[in-house]
Design goal:
The complex is a heterodimer of chains A (75) and B (568). Chain A is mainly α. Chain A is built from 2 helices and no strands. The two termini of chain A are 15 Å apart. In chain A, 31% of the residues are buried. Helix content of chain B is 71%, strand content 0%. Chain B has 24 helices and no strands. The longest helix of chain B has 39 residues. The chains are: A mainly alpha (75), B mainly alpha (568). Chains A and B meet through α1 and α2 of A and α2, α9, α10 and α18 of B.
Chain lengths: 75, 568
């Protein structure tokens, strides 16, 4: 619960997930399109965790931002 | 600010942050500071500053309750303990946490909440009198700043290992950030940031066990690898506890069940004001009862991101990790570095930034929890009670803000002190048993036994604390004393701490009972709202089963039993 008129903590969390998800997904897609030339020390790179994990965070973030948008009535 | 850190890089590091990682880390710092500035407007009264206006829902209070504990102790320390001792470390999450959290919610929370106390020492003042409160407040203040220093040191260690950052720079930058957002927004700011940090910790750390299990080939294959690299006992939680000789920790089932599961765990989760303060901020009694139960439900799954990475480290890391002393001497990696090593193994650009942010978030939430609790206890239980009894509300808030800054500065000093100790975890456990175990004896007798008197409470707490410190000093000076304290000459430091907690709690209870029986008790009418049997607990009314905290407590307890059977 937040004081009257304040922004919900869940909205802040949504913002955080959207920003992080966008950055991680964006870099993951960049890596897919343009794979690194030199030997990469990361294990299981072929699973492209950046892509699916970034997409998951982005989707969760958008959901939180929409649902807890300041001023939006929640049923 | 993070960009500036790049100029301070040490020569060796596990990974290099790319620009996308730096943006993620910088964004985190900006967001937590923005939350602090935004919430400042609701922290102008003492109730608003120290108890977040008592407006938190059960979910927010519950996640904050858990997150305040997800500091360095949880993330780095228990991953290290899992590497060192195997799956036995999970007991500190399950039997060593869940029953106590449920007990807090169902049995103890009504007394804390109905008494409208601002702190645990505040409850002791109402129940036993001023002297017990002062003793408890002083010991708590000492413990919290020491714990906060441990958090700082641990975070700086991560930054050194993972990024090669200068250890002093890491300590100061995190400390200043925490000081700003807690001093501005008080407990509300700490709670909001703790919930954010809780989500980030999971978002950043969950990939390690997922990808680790993929690499290992599943749980069964992981067990085989651990058996080959260490021993089969490392993947069992109960079957090796029949004797101290059968497990790497040198501990038996009695110490785990009674020492850890009862004394240490109940002491920490029900009387440590660091965590209890979050529940006191709940909006009503039902939310206050539900919050620890929600926290317990999530607590059961924290080993997935803490203990499992330690076990995966045994199976998958190409290097053998050693103790801190050996690592420093030989230039290798220590147990304490297992989590960042696993992070560096699986996380590329972007994910690495999120993982580093998760670690920072964990450390900062632990630090903020300690600092906000220290500020409250100092302001209410020492400054307001002993130094300036007629302080106005605005003076208390001003003192709270200054105390936050002071607490951070003392913590920084402590961080430098902690660098001298070889094992972070063992030190933390020693602290718990000094103060927390006897305090639990005092509080539980106060809540459940009407006959306990003011003199009994004070002398019991003092005797228990002194006996704990005395045993610790005894073992330090005479190493052979371990076989007397822990009933086994090769007991690990963790096992020693559990046993010391058992003895100090026992001393506290015995002294409290004996002194109470020799002194005059308070009239029952004065104990209303403070003691079981003298207090009429509010009815929950006619509500559906799924709205009752007791129902969810039973569900969580059943989940705990099932997990223990699966990993027996």
């Amino acid at each position: 619960m937040e004081p009257r008129g304040s922004i919900s903590i869940w909205f802040f969390i949504g913002i955080s997930l959207v920003v992080n998800g966008t950055l991680i997904l964006g870099y993951g897609i960049y890596e897919l399109i343009q794979p690194a030339q030199k030997q990469n020390p990361i294990v299981l790179l072929n699973h492209h965790a950046s892509v699916w994990w970034g997409a998951l965070l982005l989707a969760a973030g958008i959901t939180y931002c929409y649902h807890f948008l300041p001023g939006r009535k929640r049923g | 600010m993070i960009s500036c850190a790049l100029t301070l890089l040490a020569p060796q590091r596990l990974v290099h942050l790319t620009s996308v990682d730096i943006v993620i880390v910088v964004f985190y710092f900006v967001l937590v500071l923005a939350i602090g500035f935004y919430l400042k407007r609701w922290a102008n009264t003492s109730e608003g500053y120290f108890l977040a206006g008592r407006e938190m829902t059960a979910w927010i209070a519950g996640l904050s309750f858990l997150s305040a504990n997800l500091g360095a102790l949880e993330l780095m320390g228990w991953a290290a303990a899992a590497y060192q001792y195997g799956a036995l470390a999970v007991h500190w999450y399950w039997i060593g946490a869940i029953p106590a959290m449920l007990f807090l919610g169902i049995v103890m929370m009504p007394f804390y909440y109905i008494s409208k106390t601002h702190s645990v020492p505040g409850y002791l003042k109402l129940r036993y009198g001023e002297s017990t409160r002062a003793l408890s407040a002083v010991t708590f203040a000492v413990m919290t700043v020491l714990m906060s220093g441990i958090n700082m040191y641990s975070m700086a260690l991560v930054m050194k290992v993972v990024l090669g950052w200068d250890i002093h720079f890491s300590i100061w930058i995190s400390a200043i950030t925490v000081a700003i957002y807690v001093a501005l927004g008080g407990l509300r700011s700490a709670i909001f940031n703790e919930v954010l940090q809780f989500i980030l910790i999971w978002a950043g750390a969950l990939l390690i066990p997922i990808l680790g299990l993929v690499e290992a080939g599943g749980w069964h294959a992981l067990k085989l690898r651990i058996a080959a690299n260490a021993a089969p006992e490392y993947t069992h939680v109960w079957s090796t506890l029949g004797s101290v000789h059968n497990n790497p920790m040198g501990i038996n089932w009695f110490a785990i069940v009674f020492g850890l599961g009862f004394v240490v765990s109940f002491g920490y989760w029900t009387t440590d004001f660091l965590v209890v303060q979050r529940i006191l901020a709940a909006k009503d009694l039902r939310a206050a009862k539900m919050a620890p139960i929600i926290g317990a439900a999530f607590k059961m799954f924290v080993p997935f991101i803490v203990i499992l990475p330690g076990l995966l480290g045994i199976a998958l890391l190409p290097v053998k990790l050693v103790g801190e002393g050996a690592a420093v001497a030989a230039g290798g990696h220590s147990y304490n570095e297992v989590l960042p090593l696993m992070l560096a193994r699986y996380c590329g650009p972007g994910l690495l930034g999120l993982g580093v942010t998760a670690l920072m978030a964990g450390f900062m939430s632990g630090m903020a929890g300690n600092v906000s609790a220290f500020s409250t206890v100092w302001t209410y239980d020492l400054y307001g009670a002993l130094i300036h009894k007629s302080a106005t509300d605005s003076q208390l808030v001003r003192m709270g803000r200054w105390c936050t800054v002071l607490g951070v500065l003392v913590s920084i000093g402590t961080a430098y002190l902690v660098m001298q100790f070889l094992s972070i975890m063992d030190y933390v456990q020693a602290l718990f048993s000094f103060f927390i175990a006897p305090l639990f004896g005092t509080v539980i007798l106060g809540m459940l036994w009407k006959r306990a008197t003011a003199a009994g409470g004070f002398w019991g707490l003092l005797a228990g604390t002194l006996s704990s410190v005395g045993m610790w000093v005894w073992v330090k000076r005479v190493p052979g004393a371990v076989s007397t304290i822990a009933l086994y000459s090769k007991a690990s430091p963790m096992a020693q701490d559990v046993w010391r907690a058992v003895w100090s709690w026992s001393v506290c209870v015995i002294v409290t009972v004996v002194v109470s029986l020799m002194t005059q008790p308070r009239p029952i009418s004065e104990l209303k709202g403070l003691v079981y049997g003298a207090t009429e607990l509010p009815s929950e009314g006619e509500v559906p089963l799924y709205h009752r905290p007791a129902f969810w407590a039973v569900v969580v307890a059943l989940g705990l039993i099932v997990l223990n059977i699966i990993f027996w």
